[in-house]
Design a protein that fits this description.
The chain is mainly α and 679 residues long. The chain is 62% helix and 3% strand. It contains 27 helices and six strands. Strands 1-2 form a two-stranded antiparallel ribbon. It has a two-stranded parallel sheet with strand order 3-6. Strands 4-5 form a two-stranded antiparallel ribbon. Helix 18 runs antiparallel to helix 19. The C terminus is likely disordered.
Length: 679
């Protein structure tokens, strides 16, 4: 009997453990199958809604979203039985952690519905945005063309102002609701999965497995800032020469609306003003405009761009024929912001309202095709790993490929550049300036926007301060100011899609860092030492190794994957600095007599329109008046008390003087001194 009991006590835990592991395997298999089905249903309905924002489509996607959230919450609760992670292997632990981290699905159904409605309102307001310009209501894609090509200061200011005024005030209340509910979700997730999220900011940062992410971002910026400030000083001088001293001060920030972009996020469209050697076209300009002008349709442009992946030895991409590249004239409202959609296995779509002769759109197309390539490579992963190891990886893929696409060697290889074409030093610097205006100019904007978001959620920026604090960050890091007075009741951040749609933005800043790390490694794999002038075509090993990195999806920690690919476990700004070193050296020499930075922060352009005190204050106008009245009252009371005190002192002094006089006279009379005797 003793031996039977002993064997039972020894074997039962082992049998139970084996049973639990079997249960976990079944749970994970069931989760991945169900999640894949429900996710596909949700994304199909969301895609339908965003390409036709009719009420019935909104209801369908909201219902699908509710089903998916309920499933996520249910499975996360079920996963709690497997929280003893030490029993499982690395893959199982990683799956469980991703299943347990459910985000806003943790909210009660009423709050989830409120959050969905508030987000729908902000997204809809953005998608419906328009400006009446030159006698016609114009949507964003048209307005962006004007912002890139116009050089009329007043017209640009008009478009800039009306775009913001038409969106920001409409969505401010909804955005405040989004902040409140997301923060509530963060606190509930903290309790649910036993992590320490003080606000939604901490939840957003958690995707990078880096508790000190903000300091890492600021350290990266500290490395990049000297290069950026050289570019800023050069751009400011060129804009000063074009617009004159009324609109540009050579020691001050630059007005935001003349940077060639609706948001001043990239300065790519200013290349015509910024070329180091204006008399020389760079090879990108010559080839891209030839390409755009000789292809029959947008479909031809897309097809030509897709071909780069097999050209590099990578798997051809599978782009769905349900992709949309032009605004549907039969639809009143649709989201035209360029987006790649992972609808289902083998069903990957792009929505993008392209303009056929837009070079900037061609850049964006490569970015979105990079997402499509990534989707295809991770289709074979279990659903829970069908993503990138951190959000920046996904954003970096297409931008890395674009650096290959614009290299002279590749353009010769595909027949878009004559084999005898010579890229001399002038053409090289002109081409590099184009890329610097796109990528380096973006960095402070990308960082500032997300610092603003983090501080809003973290409570450092209060309600009523959203707009003023946003512009403080933009001025501090980017050296850019609004061209016209902005009031506390304005909400300019919402004029950017990634705020209106509540899409985290630091991924783009970090993706630019990764882009040059990836490209640097591709050059090494192609045995090319000079990263600024390397040739990757004809070296399938470079494409193969890059593809192997991407195929892993989210199945391994991002630091491990990055180290296997590049030998580095961190975000590293040095490859980006190395790529632009020839142009940075040229800028330093060219800017020898320029002010580097923007010390004159009180300067405002002509026709700015309001006092600095009013613009900078985060208080509503009636609060400002109340403050001034309060100060006036305090000063008035002080002077009244001072007057009363002075009067009282004088009165007492007169009494004392009078009493002394009377005493002296009495003494004089007593001694017989005449009244006319000097006293």
């Amino acid at each position: 009997m003793f031996w039977i009991v002993a064997c039972y006590l020894v074997l039962f835990p082992l049998l139970a453990c084996g049973q639990e592991i079997n249960n976990l395997e079944k749970f994970l298999a069931d989760y991945n199958a169900e999640a894949e089905f429900l996710s596909a249903d949700y994304y199909k309905k969301l895609f339908t809604f965003e390409t036709n924002m009719a009420d019935e489509n909104a209801e369908a996607y909201a219902t699908a979203g509710e089903l998916y959230d309920n499933f996520t919450m249910s499975k996360s609760t079920e996963a709690q039985q497997f929280v003893d992670f030490d029993k499982y292997n690395d893959t199982e632990r990683r799956m469980l952690k991703r299943i347990l981290d459910i985000g806003v699905a943790v909210l009660p159904s009423k709050q989830r519905a409120d959050l969905a409605m508030a987000t729908k309102n902000t997204s809809t307001a953005y998608s419906q945005g328009k400006v009446n310009f030159k006698g016609k209501d114009r949507k964003l894609e048209e307005l962006e063309l004007y912002m890139g090509r116009l050089r009329n200061y007043s017209e640009l200011k008009y478009i800039w102002e009306k775009w913001r005024d038409g969106i920001g005030p409409k969505v401010l209340h909804d955005y405040e609701k989004i902040v409140e509910l997301n923060n509530e979700a963060a606190h509930l997730v903290s309790e649910y999965v036993h992590v320490d999220y003080n606000s939604w900011t901490d939840y957003l940062k958690s995707f990078y497995d880096e508790p000190d992410l903000e300091n890492i971002v600021l350290e990266l910026w500290e490395e990049l800032e000297p290069m950026y400030k050289q570019l800023h000083a050069y751009a400011r001088r060129k804009l000063y020469e074009f617009y004159g001293p009324d609109y540009i001060d050579l020691q001050a920030p630059i007005p935001a609306h003349i940077m060639g972009n609706m948001w001043g996020a990239t300065w790519f469209n200013l290349h015509d003003l910024m070329k180091p050697f204006p008399e020389t076209n760079d090879h990108v300009e010559e080839v891209a405009m030839t390409l755009l002008n000789n292809l029959d349709s947008i479909e031809d442009i897309v097809s030509r761009s897709e071909s780069i992946f097999p050209d590099l030895g990578m798997t051809p991409i599978n782009l769905s024929n349900k992709s949309i590249f032009e605004r549907n004239p039969n639809v009143t409202n649709m989201v035209c912001h360029a987006t790649a959609w992972p609808i289902d296995v083998g069903d990957h779509r792009i929505v993008m309202c392209m303009v056929e002769n837009s070079l900037e759109d061609l850049f964006t197309l490569y970015h979105e095709l990079g997402h499509i390539a990534y989707f295809g490579l991770i289709d074979s992963q279990p659903f829970v790993f069908r993503n990138s190891p951190n959000p920046a990886f996904h954003e970096a893929v297409g931008d890395t490929i674009f650096l290959v696409a614009v290299s002279p060697q590749y353009l010769k290889y595909v027949g878009l550049l004559d084999t005898n074409y010579v890229v001399d030093s002038k053409k090289k610097l002109n081409s590099m300036m184009r890329m610097m205006l796109a990528d380096v100019a973006f960095m402070p904007y990308g960082m500032s926007l997300e610092l603003w978001r983090w501080r809003v959620y973290g409570g450092e920026i209060k309600r009523g301060e959203y707009n003023s604090k946003y512009w403080e960050l933009i001025r501090e890091y980017q050296g850019v100011v609004p061209p016209i007075c902005r009031k506390p009741t304005d909400f300019d951040p919402a004029a950017k899609f990634h705020v209106a749609s509540e899409t985290p933005y630091i991924r783009y800043f970090l993706a630019k860092i990764l882009q040059y790390q990836f490209y640097n490694q591709m050059c090494k794999d192609a045995d090319e030492a000079n990263v600024a002038d390397c040739s990757i075509y004809g070296n399938p090993e470079a494409g193969r190794r890059f593809e192997e990195l991407l195929k892993k999806g989210a199945s391994e920690p991002w630091r491990d994957l990055l180290e296997k690919y590049t030998g580095d476990r961190r975000f590293n700004a040095k490859p980006m600095l190395e790529y632009y070193k020839p142009l940075t050296d040229w800028l330093i020499k060219t800017n020898s007599n320029e002010t580097i930075g923007w010390p004159n922060t009180i300067w405002r352009p002509k026709d700015y329109g309001c006092d600095d005190e009013y613009e900078e204050s985060s208080l509503p106008r009636y609060h400002i008046v109340a403050v001034y009245l309060g100060i006036a009252c305090i000063v008035g009371v002080f002077f009244l008390l001072l007057l009363m005190y002075t009067g009282n002192v004088c009165y007492n002094e007169r009494r004392v003087t009078r009493r002394r006089t009377e005493t002296v006279l009495e003494l004089c009379n007593h001694e017989g001194v005449g009244a006319d005797t000097p006293v």
